[in-house]
Amino acid sequence: MIVVRSIEDIHDALTDTCLTIGNFDGVHMGHARLLRRVRERAAATGMLSLAVTFDPHPRRVLLEKNEPPLLTLTEQKLELLDQSGVQVAVLLPFTKALAALAPEDFVREKLVTGLCMREMIIGYDYAFGKGRKGNFELLTALGVKYGFCVERLEPVIIDGAVVSSTRIRDMVQAGEVWDARPLLGRFYQVRGTVVRGRDRGGRLLGFPTANLAPADELVPKPGVYAVWVDVGERIHPGVTNIGYNPTFGNGALSIEVHLLDFTGDLYGQPIRVHFVQRLRSERKFSGVEELSARIREDIRIGRRILAEPEARIA
Known about the structure:
It holds the Pfam family Flavokinase. With 314 residues, the protein is an alpha/beta fold. The protein is built from ten helices and 14 strands. Helix 5 packs across helix 6.
């Protein structure tokens, strides 16, 4: 997949394109359906398939705050768009000037003239531009005027509700990572770098842990989780604790990853943690002995869960 951050960088290489546009936070199953349809139409008509998205997220510019946390930062979003099979990702810098463009000006200047759009695939609730006036009806009228057609897809329904970034975010924040997987099409993941912690895991408890400094914004609800961990080219089973270490006196929130049957030094290395299932909430134990026994039980349960076929990473 080609990634461009300016329409001018690719305009001269374009002819006719079929595109979809959105924030694509999470690149979830609703987004996957849009991207699949773009690929299908592009292949059927000989056009180029494009996904147009924004950086930073429009909410960050318009509301000038970082809440709610994003499911996927730009690097992972582009990785997932690449996996979707679209040929080009256009990452437009989102500014207040861009937000102030009238919908017709945005369509004419950026999409039709700039990206040679001939077909546009949108979601059931898509709207854009100043005052969010760029809805399906307006796009259809503009298509007649500027020579493109618009197709609107119905929402993707899973477990009786529409798949959305907000719904997935709420599930992750509630610790419902197992239930979030069908909506995402994968287990929710957190990336980061292993940093030095307090060295309690191996020294005091007998279970060495990698202390993760997360790069991602959204961390699941505190508790203990069965996880898969990417280290380099290998994937390891593991158990992760997210919390404040109440047994040792509440501290700052930490993410401590114990890789099962692993030996080696991970300090300074990037890892990726895939959250499979929440095992329990974090709680205060009477001391090291009781906590160690509980961790041993967590590992036993974690192994059993990760051995199940539905818990595997494709």
